[in-house]
Amino acid sequence: MTTSVDKVPEGPGPSGTASPHHPIRAVPVRHYGRWVSAVVVVGVLAALGAAFAGGKITWSTTREFLFNADIMAGAGNTLFISVASMVLGLVLGVTAAVMRMSGNPVMSGVAWLYIWIFRGTPVIVQLLIWWNLALVFPTMFGQDTNKVITPLVAALLGLGINEGAYMAEIVRAGIQSVDEGQTEASHALGMSKGQTMRRIVLPQAMRVIVPPTGNEFINMLKTSSLAFVVTYPEVMLKVQDVYTNNLAVMELLFVACFWYLVLTTVFSIGQFYLERRYARGSSRNLPPTPLQKIKANMFSLRTPGGAL
Amino acid sequence: MAGNLSKNPGAPMVKAEDVHKSFGHLQVLKGIDLEVRPREVFCLIGPSGSGKSTFLRCINHLEKINAGRLWVDGELVGYRQKGDKLYEMKDSEIAVQRRDIGMVFQRFNLFPHMTAVENVMEAPVRVKGQGKAEARERAQQLLERVGLGDKAGSYPSQLSGGQQQRVAIARALAMEPKLMLFDEPTSALDPELVGDVLDVMRQLAEEGMTMVVVTHEMGFAREVGDALVFMDGGVVVESGHPRDVLTDPQHERTKAFLSKVL
Ligand SMILES: Nc1ncnc2c1ncn2[C@@H]1O[C@H](COP(=O)(O)OP(=O)(O)OP(=O)(O)O)[C@@H](O)[C@H]1O
Ligand SMILES: [Mg+2]
Hints:
The complex is a heterodimer of chains A (308) and B (262).
Chain A: H1 32-54, H2 59-66, H3 69-101, H4 105-120, H5 123-131, E1 139-140, E2 143-144, H6 145-148, H7 151-176, H8 180-188, H9 193-223, H10 235-246, H11 249-278, H12 290-302
Antiparallel strand pairs in A: 1-2
Helix pairs in contact in A: 2-11, 3-4, 3-7, 3-9, 3-10, 3-11, 4-7, 5-7, 7-9, 8-9, 9-11, 10-11
Chain B: E1 14-23, E2 26-36, E3 41-45, H1 52-59, E4 67-72, E5 75-76, E6 79-82, E7 85-88, H2 91-99, E8 101-104, H3 116-126, H4 132-145, H5 161-173, E9 179-183, H6 191-206, E10 210-214, H7 218-224, E11 227-232, E12 235-240, H8 242-247, H9 252-261
Parallel strand pairs in B: 3-10, 3-11, 8-9, 9-10
Antiparallel strand pairs in B: 1-2, 1-4, 4-5, 6-7, 11-12
Helix pairs in contact in B: 3-4, 3-5, 4-5, 5-6
């Protein structure tokens, strides 16, 4: 350690003269692109709006059926079948993911087969197969198969089991994202494999699992419209019932859009809070909730520019 | 709190006989023989890749040995012997053996989704079935003992490296082990944080904990160590009292290594 370090010259600037700090008055960068694009977007939206307003659409019909009791019940059923299928999918997905990663070749083979079949075939085909199961097994549990496989059961099996195959891969990616040192530390403390998975690995994997699962759920809300093929009374089936009678096809499709947007919006808000919960411990500061953001912004508005 | 009492007083705490370990074609341990006596601080030194971590991990069966025998407190690690036949233990039996062996890792491996106190109480609650209130109180005491009584509610990401490592030591101690394994506990730390961790280890040694320590801290080995082994290429090259080995190495390879690190 014999290298000598040159002393840094003292004083605020190279000239060494202390100058008071004037507030900066500079011409801000002009974002011309933003103005141009905003004008284009507004123009296109206005044109689209005019087209729909002037098209052959009776908006009063849309308004009339928006809060129709039958259609709202359909929206409720859509929500119910989506949540139920997602729960079934999660349970199957976690199970299949753990089986797939187990050292037991029978287990991982079965999991692989499950994922291969159910991810590789269209969900509408799977729904129809469950629905027509009576053609293969006329009786089940000592009962007529057609009595066991109600529209609800067929929709749940079709959507849930299909979802499980996707969730399995999401969960597996999540589990693999957790550092191996975590498993080792847990084993070194004498925790069993099951305890390690439940208490240490899965909670950490959730951070990776939750965002794509939110995506899956939003997809599920929309995919559940396919359950009309098994006559499950979700919102699309109800809407179709109405427009085959009054022939107001577009009007009622907009009603369906409205309800799907309501459901996905409500869910997106829930997802934000769920993600926030599983970020615990992974970062020093959690992202602010919208409410916190509004409070913070209101405060900063009073001191414009943040100047002191 | 000297941990659980030995089941076989007088027997060595760790005994290795001709321990071999390979990963595929790579032979990492090529016949390790050594004995760690109860209440002893046993230091392992050697160049990178010589198999120190691997040997440490064999002691609590995080790695399976391929040949030889390894005992902890008179019990074979990972196997049961009946006559001259060996039977592999089930995962649950191995977990029982590991309860009595604490391990501290180079990279801490704290559970990031739990606070410091939750990290420490997790194993006593899940493995020993201790009540939560009791476990929390004990965990708080342990954190105070390592100088972190005021950090109980902090998540690992909010702690410095040295603080994390001390929580990790408290977590291992919460199981009241009869043997502690340390794998380079200070080499991921900034120099000014090393002292705090070594102080905790020194205190443990004074209380009579049996410790196997892989370390590059020759000062610690000399002051606190009771025995020292120099490993290279998967074999024990030289062993003895730390003072003797470090000041007057007999082997060329030991001399070459020490001249580089001292
Ligand atoms: N799981 C594994 N699979 C394959 N090779 C491994 C594995 N673990 C360790 N090795 C190899 O075994 C050799 C010894 O590794 P080990 O970690 O025991 O060395 P070490 O003495 O602890 O070194 P260091 O001082 O760098 O920590 C290295 O060549 C390493 O690449
Ligand atoms: Mg190592």
